[in-house]
Each structure stands twice: as C-alpha cells, then as structure tokens.
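seq as requested:
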Amino acid sequence: MMTELKISTDASELIGPDGQPNLVRLLEAWSTATERLQRTHETLREQVRRLSDELEIKNRELARKNRLADLGQLASHVAHELRNGLMPLTLYTSLLRRRLSDDDGSQDVLDKIETGLTALDAIVNDLLHFTSDRQPRKSLFDARELIGEVLDSIRPQLEAQGIYPALDIPLGIRLHADRSMLHRAILNIVLNALDAMPDGGEL
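struct tokens:
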C-alpha cells in the first residue's frame, strides 16, 4: 500500500508575527517532509522487491513448464517408437509359440520373452500417460476383480517362473479411484516382484 505524503503549506504556520519566516517552523516542516519522504521511499522499495520476487518465481515456473513440455514431447516420441517396435515382437512371439507348441524348452524361453515384452509395454503405457496430462477419472470397482485382471494379463509369466499369487482380499471390497491408473500401478509392482523372484515362490 502506498504511503500518502502530505506536507503542510499553511503560510500562517511558517510566517512569524513580525512577518519574518519562522525558522523553527520551517525546520520542523522540512524534517516532517523528509521523514515522510523517507518512509514513502522505503515502502516503494519494499514493493519493488516483492514484485521482483514474484516475477522471479513466475519466470521459474514458466521455465519449469517449458522444460516439462519439452520432456513430454520427448517421452511421447520415445513411447511411440517403442510401441512400434513391440508390436511385431509380440506378434512374432505368438507365431513362434504356435509353431513350437510341442517344444517345452522353447515355450519356457518364449514365456520369458513375453515377460520382458509385458514389462516394456507397461513402461510405454507409463510414458504415454505421463505425456497425456490426463486427470484421474474415478469410479467404483471391485478390488479383487481388478487385481485378478492384472494377474491374468501376466499369467504365462507367473507360471513360467513358478510364481503362485496368493490373493488375500476379502470379498466385496470396492475402491473409488481411477481404474486404469491403479491397474498400471499394480502391474508395475507385480513386475518388480517378478524380477526379485528368479527362483519362484508365493507372491
């Protein structure tokens, strides 16, 4: 808030009875004006400092948004390139599985390949989600059903590694969240667990 500067210019206060300047009153008026001017100057300087700080903060925020935008474009490009490469790999793996259906050793290798492809696909989905800047779309859904879908999507990998999921969730538990976001989050957790269980076991 600006400090209002008021200086008295009433001649009757500055001129003595004899018609001569009242030096004491003149000095007092000068001192008062100087003090008020100094306060006004300090107030203005404080306002300039505050506005400069606000401008610096906004500039940093703008620079950060620009960097995030550039990063988002790069992530989107990488994600699409990865997805373009994953699609034929997934198709070829499926074709090989059918052709080598009687070869148990080859099936084990293909299971491991599919595990890696699933993990890469999850990374691609995360990158695309990062670049979409999508707001969560919450809905009610069954917790056991969601986790069951996650486990079904990687069932071959679980069986190939000898991992047996133990689902300990009471019936009727419903969640209010973004289903697709939570699906990706749980899938990432499970895939990390697979990496940490090379000898199999109970998940």
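Confidence is low (pLDDT under 50) at residues 1-8.
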